[in-house]
Amino acid sequence: MRTTFVRLAVLLCVGVAAVACSKTLDVAGLETQLGTQLNAQLNTTGITVDCPDDVKAESGGELDCIGTVSTGETFTIHVKQTDGDGHVTWEIVGATTPSPSPSA
User: Fold this and answer.
1) What is the percent of the chain where pLDDT is above 70?
2) What is d(CA 83, CA 85) in angstroms, rounded to the nearest whole number?
3) Is the CB of residue 14 less than 8 Å from the CB of residue 44?
């Protein structure tokens, strides 16, 4: 009986560890959060953000998301996870100021 209990306890621990290891980042929530923050900081509307799917939630994990403005221009947002619970820091990288359109 004791052997069965020990086996069950070990299997339960392995199962919990596997679930904890497979935790993914809430990408939809991250996209919404980044879009809201960017629109607020730039005092605009219409910026949308698209991030890769199935990102593992882990401290130090990094990913790049794409921001799109209403004109269709895009820019990269580099995101770094500060922990395994979905907390992140981010910065816009490689953004260039669009050239003005030639006047007609």
Assistant:
1) 69
2) 6
3) no
Residue 31, token pair as written in the block? 């996209």
For residue 96, give the nearest of 56, 64, 58, 69 by alpha carbon: 69
**pLDDT tens column, 25-62:** 999 999 999 999 999 999 999 999 999 999 999 999 99
Sign of the CA dihedral 7, 13, 17, 23? positive
CA 28 to chain CA centroid, nearest Å:
8
Distance CA 39, CA 50 (A): 14
Tokens read off for 27: 């990408």
Paired residues of 16 in beta bridges: none
User: What is the secondary structure of 52-102 as a DSSP string?
Assistant: -SS-B--TT-EEEEEEE-TTS-EEEEEEEESSTTS-EEEEEES--PPPPPP
CA dihedral angle for residue 87, residue 82, residue 46, residue 41, rounded to 10 degrees: 100
